Amino acid sequence: MKVLVLGNGGREHALAWKIGCSGLVEAVFMAPAGSPKEPRIVATALDILDPDAIMAFVTNEGVDLVVIGPEAPLVAGIADSLRASGILVFGPGARGAILEGSKIFAKRFMKEHGIPTADSVVCKTMEEVIQAVEAHDDPYVVKCDGLAAGKGVCVSTSAAQSIDFAAEVFRGSYGEQAEVIMEERLHGQEVSVFALLDGTTYALLAPSRDHKRLKEDDTGPNTGGMGAFTPVPGYSTDLHEQICRSIMDPVMRGLAADKIDYRGLLYVGLILTDDGPKVLEFNC
């Protein structure tokens, strides 16, 4: 097989390297960069948001499988364009990727399908933000609705911080964001769960726990993640079964009910509260 990996981050380099280890693989292309340490990974100058350019490359090189790493081309529907032309793709179409592309959509999806998550309120203006803050005793977690490279979240410690962050969002500091979502702050240890989906069933990989905050002792702003470890202490068989029963099974039923054909990886960011695991976010 010939495989094209879209994306040039650490995740995509790891994918390209591991795919290249397979005896089934003849060549691995990587856009928009390769790896000097892995001569089998061939760099190609492609705009990963341009479906026509990707399709032309796939056709000319005889690519059999496209693996999409980053969220932006998934949200843009690159997987849909390729599948429509009969190309095998690892990664969800746009209707599935919106679970990461819109925090508000994801929250509605969870509420509609009985998936445990934090209570929240959506705000379209600063006036609505101030009203929400005044009506809530504890500081909010404030999130951009759309993609913000893992940095569009403020775990507030005060009402003023919630208001200031929302104002930054509306000023365009995190891209074009028309809405923010104000969430109840949940307490507990976080766990990252990774599910492989084929459209009808799922299989879970090993869970991990990552370091999100910039500074020591869980202080500073959130980053896109600065290191992760597995196995996760305390991740028992009972917890695994509870996550399958209360999170993953309802997710699969919800995708089926909404007629979303999701093929690829679904990352579920969880927090282990006293009331059980709850979803903080989905990544695609």
Brief overview:
Helix content is about 35%, strand content about 25%. With about 280 residues, it is an alpha/beta fold. The radius of gyration is 20 Å and the shape is globular.
Describe the structure.
By secondary structure, this protein is an alpha/beta fold. It is built from nine helices and 17 strands. The chain has helices at 10-20, 51-61, 71-75, 78-84, 94-101, 103-112, 126-134, 159-170, 237-257, and strands spanning 2-6, 27-31, 41-43, 65-68, 88-90, 120-123, 141-144, 153-155, 180-183, 189-198, 202-204, 209-210, 213-215, 219-222, 228-229, 263-273, 276-283. The strands form five sheets. A five-stranded parallel β-sheet has the order 3-2-1-4-5, sandwiched between helices. It has a four-stranded antiparallel β-sheet with strand order 6-9-7-8, sandwiched between helices. Strands 11-10-16-17 form a four-stranded antiparallel β-sheet, with helices on one face. Helix 1 (10-20) links the parallel strand 1 (2-6) and strand 2. The protein is globular, with a radius of gyration of 20 Å. The relative contact order is 0.13. The mean pLDDT is 92.
